[in-house]
Design a protein that fits this description.
By secondary structure, this protein is mainly alpha-helical. It contains three helices and two strands, in the order E-E-H-H-H. It has a two-stranded antiparallel sheet with strand order 1-2. A hairpin with a 5-residue loop joins strand 1 and strand 2. The longest helix is centred in the middle third of the chain and has 11 residues. The chain starts with a strand and ends in a 26-residue tail after the last helix. It comes from Streptomyces chryseus.
Length: about 90
Amino acid sequence: MGHVSDGTIALKSHTDEVAAYYAHAPRGPLFPPVTPAEVENAERAIGRRLPELLRRVYTEVANGGFGPDRGLASLTDGSRAPGHLTD
């Protein structure tokens, strides 16, 4: 752990250890990422802008369907994990 001059704390990610721990966890395929325009449509629908990191997750990783519990909700119709609400 290291301190940064602006008062934040930087933590080592342990990416390899986390990947190894979850290597055999059951999971389905990821939904394809959405476009920035699709994120903006979802933001208009909910009435607020998503945090920048979450915007990047949706546009660079996947359109939901992964993460804790049943995963992040999809921002678009047609990509819903089983059991997720449609709105």
